[in-house]
Amino acid sequence: MSEALKLFSLQIALVAVVLILHTYLGLHIIRRTLIFSDLVLDQLAAFGALVGVGIYTKYAFSDSIVLAKGVVLFKYASVGSYLLALVAVLFGSLLLALIKPKTRAIPREAVICILYAMALVISLLLTDKLPNAETYVTATLSGSLLWVTWPLVIVTAVVYIALLIFHYILRDKFITLAENPKTLKNEKLWDFLFFTTQGIITVLIVPIAGVLLAYAFLMIPAATAAMFTKKWTKAVLIGWSIGFVACVLGLGSSYFWNFPYGPTLVLFLGLFFVFAMVLRCLLSSRNFNSKRI
Amino acid sequence: MLQLLHILGLPFLMCLIMGTILAYFGIHVLKRDIVFINIAVAQVAAIGSIAAHLVFDAEEDTLIAYLSSLGCVLLIAAFYAMARRKIIQISIEAVIGISYAITAAGAMFLIGIAPGHAHAEEMLAGKLLWVTPQHIVLCLVVFTAVAFCIHIFKKPLLRISENYEEAIRQGLKVIWWDFVFYGLLGVVITLAVRVTGIVTVFSFLIIPATISALFTARWGLRMLIAWVAAIVASLGGLLFAYFFDFSVGPAIALFLGAVLAIAALFSSFAKLT
């Protein structure tokens, strides 16, 4: 098998695994209208990585050799940077679970979006004080395939499978959280666990796929499926199938025509979404007409 | 003191103008639960200016770039207005959020490079400190025109924001009025983002309106509270950025967040006693 084909099949396999959990979590997010939560966690993960860069640049040329060697761990996309991103994301999950507006005049999505704005603001203020800030802002925004290593792919796949099992076992609790949260004991704890799952996959997937593709993976297959069914299993199946076909087409054409792979995948997913919207409109008006008749 | 006024005077004026119109739109946006609209529209406007650059070789801040952005914003406004009426089972916020992903990918595709090209930070953080009198006059003229339109169309827009289903039952042409609303908001956001960056516009749109919702449901009072919050945060943010050498836009956004946190504490304390 040629190298390109090997890489292609590896990517397809990774997409197939990643899409199951993303579609399922995306359905929760769409149905509960927490669209911004993903961007909050993305931004906090980026902030964690930036703090790592800050520590590294401050102490890398320190006189103490131990300190100078220790801070190498915090270089961008190294172990320490991942850990800091994880800590930031866990903190974000806690805030997302705990802060709920008491008045109906403030939608929960507004609180989430303000958290996003604040996460973005502290990242920008931090970069004000970093040398070469522009490079890091760009890096945290886009992610890059350059940092993808085999161990990272294996860790990603293992963690995804573990989280899938976790969600499968506790599916009743999480579905109640989405459909009828008032009947659930410890609602905030389940919310925290939900956002933590989302946070962990964010930390893992964003360096590989970039913020935009990770976000599209989460939202588009789920939203496409949610337009056609209210059942969870059916929606995950529809979402996964649409997502998978779109990704295979996207990856294929990015290889074939040498398009940038992230945007191409998002555009193919988007194409399916727009097509599904048109179909939904046609179906709705047909149902409406047949009811009238 | 004179130097301080010289440097921060124009940015503060810009904050005042922008804060006023965005606070009003913010109350509508919260009622409609479409907080994603700001980023999505800013992204669409960016596509317009990239397209103008590719097709007409137009630079930023030229008439063609503005018109092209405006055209794209009006197109997306029509799309949102249709989608809200026709699409069932997913919220309009989800549609707006997804349209953001697709248009951002489209922009990346058009420029053929990864996201966050050379201007990523500038687009986010803005260049409020370098705002010129020409920018302020342009914003003042356009925002006044938008405010005039809002005043004329006040009733139907309010009815739709308060209760969409009820507005349909009353026979209101919701698609048309939604188009007007998204179009006007789109014009304001496009222009404001050019001057002050996404973060500041975003915070001015959502945070003052949220602060006001903590205390009252009356429109007049909400506007007043939102306006005062915007002024206090602008002053605080500008001075903080000036004395501690930070970017102005993010500093103002940070102060808006701080005012909200204090207001939320105050409001829950007031309810307890």
What does this structure look like?
- The complex is a heterodimer of chains A (293) and B (273).
- By secondary structure, chain A is an all-alpha fold.
- In chain A, 80% of the residues lie in helices and 0% in strands.
- Chain B has one domain: ABC transporter involved in vitamin B12 uptake, BtuC, CATH 1.10.3470.
- Chain B starts with a helix and ends with a helix.
Kindly report the greatest chain-chain contact and the residue count on each side. A-B, 58 and 56 residues
Form type of chain A:
globular
Largest sheet of chain A: none
Instruction: List how many beta strands of chain B DSSP finds.
Output: 0
Oligomer category: heterodimer
Strand content of chain B: under 5%
What Rg of chain B is obtained from the alpha carbons, in whole angstroms? 19 Å
> In the CATH classification, which architecture of chain B applies?
Orthogonal Bundle
- Regions with little confidence, pLDDT below 50 for 5+ residues of chain B: 113-118
Helices and strands in order:
The complex is a heterodimer of chains A (293) and B (273).
Chain A (H helix, E strand, L loop, with lengths): L2 H29 L5 H23 L5 H6 L8 H20 L9 H21 L4 H10 L7 H20 L1 H9 L7 H23 L1 H16 L5 H25 L4 H32 L1
Helix pairs in contact in A: 1-7, 1-10, 1-11, 2-4, 2-5, 2-6, 2-9, 4-9, 5-6, 7-9, 9-10, 10-11, 10-12, 11-12
Chain B lengths: L1 H31 L4 H20 L6 H24 L5 H20 L8 H6 L7 H20 L1 H9 L1 H6 L4 H23 L1 H18 L3 H26 L3 H25 L1
Helix pairs in contact in B: 1-6, 1-7, 1-9, 1-10, 1-11, 2-3, 2-4, 2-9, 3-9, 6-9, 9-10, 10-11, 10-12, 11-12
